[in-house]
Amino acid sequence: FSFVGNCEIDLEIKRYFCRAGVKSIQIHGTMRVILEPLIGDMPLIGALSLFFLRKPLLEINWTGLTNLLDVPGLNGLSDTIILDIISNYLVLPNRITVPLVSELQIAQLRFPIPKGVLRIHFIEAQDLEGKDTYLKGIVKGKSDPYGIIRVGNQIFQSKVIKENLNPKWNEVYEALVYEHPGQELEIELFDEDPDKDDFLGSLMIDLIEVEKERLLDEWFTLDEVSKGKLHLKLEWLTLMPTAENLDKVLTSIKADKDQANDGLSSALLILYLDSARNLPVSYILMDTLLS
Known about the structure:
The protein is mostly beta strands and about 290 residues long. The chain has helices at about 65-70, 80-90, 105-110, 205-215, 245-250, 285-290; strands at about 1-15, 20-30, 30-35, 45-50, 55-65, 95-100, 115-125, 135, 140, 145-150, 155, 170-175, 185-190, 200-205, 215-220, 230-235. The longest helix is centred in the N-terminal third of the chain and has 12 residues, at about 80-90. Keywords: Calcium, Cell membrane, Endoplasmic reticulum, Lipid transport, Lipid-binding, Membrane, Metal-binding, Repeat, Transmembrane, Transmembrane helix, Transport.
């Protein structure tokens, strides 16, 4: 999905004597459209679901933004915040589902059961670039590396290892996988700085490979940088409809339990909150409005 459009959006806030606008908007991403369920009558398709497999790229050409950011309540406005709003609606597991026929049960379409669980052992890195400099850049120092891990709209951030080009994190994260093929594991490493964090490399792994192998324990070469490797252990966990193997699973995760912040998962509870009826009227709110 790629949209590049010119526009004329003008905003004026007289109270603060400021004006701003937007001259153009660009958005690029991989969008998946699902047509299901198939039915025997017209329109042949019961519903339409659409979502981005990962966070899209957004670029907004602002005008007069400096003045606009001086307005209280708008000083946090940025492309990143707008992109986060889009992600909360349209990046997996979030989706938009439009029923095309009446009396269609779309709860399973809006909130599908995950295809599996990805357990990510974020172990260590080697030979990272030293981004911290001294004596106005003459002396190269070390870095304070940390990682950001993404699967769809699920984001995890590791702890920061101070002044180390061969950091050891030994952290574990678990992410739900809703679509495959298509979804990928995205990892970016950064050097923490007081102003702007420096980029230390990235990695993108197709989850189809992880599902096929069930267990990957490898060193991966970082992309977009001259050097650096990342050690990951990736496990693909399949959801079972019954609890027959629960005791076996509980036994198998005891050895790794101390590595995760909250312990490793042994089961998944899915709760659908469908609707509510006959809720009490908020008379306090009504009194406030009337007064």
